[in-house]
Design brief:
Blueprint (H helix, E strand, L loop, with lengths): L2 E8 L7 H17 L4 E3 L13 H4 L6 H13 L2 E12 L2 E12 L2 E7 L20 E2 L6 E6 L6 H9 L4 E5 L7 H15 L3 E4 L2 E3 L4 E3 L3 E3 L5 E4 L5 E8 L1 H9 L2 H4 L6
Parallel strand pairs: 1-2, 2-3, 7-8, 8-9
Antiparallel strand pairs: 1-14, 3-4, 4-5, 6-7, 9-12, 10-11, 12-13
GO molecular function: hydrolase activity
Protein name: Nitrilase-related carbon-nitrogen hydrolase
Keywords: Hydrolase
């Protein structure tokens, strides 16, 4: 693909209020697709928030209610959706819960990613995934590198995704206040150092333990900010020119000059 219009759905999330959150997300998604967006990104665990007090009801076996409704929307509008949910997997010793990233393309699940770096309190409730691989879309010549929130602080995650052929880096997050300057700096840095477009989608509003500043951002392969959200619910979008990645890497050959023999 030479270009694709992408959008971030920056929304407030009501803790444990799945139906309300899904309806809001899909309403905002309608705005995005009406403006031509083909790839839509939502905040981390957008349908429930970190509903620790009621994990049994908020978590879903795959494919649960949230995924089915997102698949329906994606099929109807022939678009790509990227988000995460609280996943429940039953085992011999009882249930395991994961922060499960999902990419849906044209109504079908194109790929999954279980967050490999749970942050602080998350470790008490979530198991960590053990695999970082890009998501290769089925119907489009496009590869998505997906990471979740805290992982924006780990350059190794984005670099692995870039080295394995990602065309676009996507970060879905509930990145809390007052770390707005850190979020923006890291979002731009991950784009610059990997010479890759980056969609970093955060939430807004107040959760049980933290408030959230938004600041969702779309950065191109040069590290130039193309769209940036404030601290309110909104949809931001931009037409990404993917061939710019090739040109940037020719001009500044970071990947060719890497010393993989010593690091």
């Amino acid at each position: 693909m030479n270009s694709i219009k992408v959008a971030c759905i920056q929304m407030d999330i009501l803790n444990c209020e799945k139906e309300t959150n899904i309806v809001k997300a899909l309403t905002m998604a309608h705005v995005a697709v009406s403006e031509g967006a083909e790839l839509l990104v939502f905040p981390e665990v957008f349908s429930t928030g970190f509903c620790y007090e009621n994990m049994v009801d908020s978590a879903e076996h795959m494919p649960g209610e949230t995924v089915k409704r997102m698949c329906d929307f994606s099929k109807e509008h022939e678009c790509i959706l990227i988000f995460s949910i609280i996943e429940r997997k039953d085992g011999v010793k009882g249930p395991d819960y994961y922060n499960l990233g999902i990419c849906i393309e044209d109504g079908e699940i194109a790929g999954l990613y279980r967050k490999t770096h749970p942050f602080k309190k998350e470790k008490q409730y979530f198991s960590a995934g053990n695999e970082i691989v890009p998501i290769r879309l089925m119907n489009r010549d496009l590869v998505i590198g997906l990471q979740i929130c805290y992982e924006i602080r780990f350059p190794e995650v984005a670099r692995k995704l870039a080295l394995e052929g990602s065309d676009i880096l996507v970060t879905i997050a509930e990145f809390p206040s007052p770390r707005g300057h850190i979020w923006k700096s890291l979002a731009i840095a991950r784009a610059i150092e990997n010479q890759i477009p980056h969609i970093a989608c955060n939430r807004v509003g107040d959760g049980p333990d933290s408030s959230f500043f938004g600041g969702s951002i779309i950065v191109d392969a040069l590290g130039e900010v193309k769209e940036e959200a404030g601290d309110k619910e909104t949809v931001i979008s931009h037409l990404l020119e993917l061939e710019k990645t090739v040109n940037v890497r020719k001009t500044i050959p970071v990947f060719d000059d890497r010393r993989s023999d010593i690091y």
